[in-house]
Known about the structure:
- A hairpin with a 2-residue loop joins strand 1 and strand 2.
- The chain contains 6 helices and 8 strands; from the N terminus they run ββααααβαββαβββ.
- A 4-stranded antiparallel sheet has the order 4-5-3-8, with helices on both faces. The chain has a two-stranded antiparallel sheet with strand order 1-2.
- The longest helix is centred in the first third of the chain and has 22 residues, at 70-91.
- It is elongated.
- 30% of the residues lie in helices and 20% in strands.
- By secondary structure, it is α+β, with helices and mostly antiparallel strands.
Amino acid sequence: xxxxxxxxxxxxxxxxxxxxxxxxxxxxxxxxxxxxxxxxxxxxxxxxxxxxxxxxxxxxxxxxxxxxxxxxxxxxxxxxxxxxxxxxxxxxxxxxxxxxxxxxxxxxxxxxxxxxxxxxxxxxxxxxxxxxxxxxxxxxxxxxxxxxxxxxxxxxxxxxxxxxxxxxxxxxxxxxxxxxxxxxxxxxxxxxxxxxxxxxxxxxxxxxxxxxxxxxxxxxxxxxxxxxxxxxxxxxxxxxxxxx
Length: 244
């Protein structure tokens, strides 16, 4: 069935007649939608007949909302990752290798980053604890550490022979001051290195303590190994020399 609707408007001081044609069709709707059509109209539409009055209402295009589930999002991420890997293979630049599990995926997508990733961070922190800083080309290098100087080997050997002990099983809230108060009674301290998370600043559970005298380090190791500190039992041992 068809329906016509007439409207007269004045435009540019001329009376215009506008004719609109509507096609009426029956569509099955949910019961809740049918019940809403029985509600009493109000406002400017209070005296209108059932149905839509184009003078007051405007019918727009239907909008369909599609909700994506977590499974769909995960599948989309996996498809994107597969596309990236295929592009790398096609370009001939080599495969992507995970730094944690050595798999063919990016490190941030590794399924073992919560378990193996923590151990990898600990090994990197231990390596960086005794790693010498690199210098940019052209910067000043003191004579004592210049290449070919005999004092370079002497200082490196002295640095490895420093009485340094490694303490592990520390609580997350442990601070540098706590370590100083705990180890200072055994002798003069030369250096304290507490490994912390780069983002949160929380202790990673281990630290390096360097004394000026070996006797002080031996005394601290003997007294504090398996010592109950807070709610944990400390593990104290000699630190391994750099490069070993």
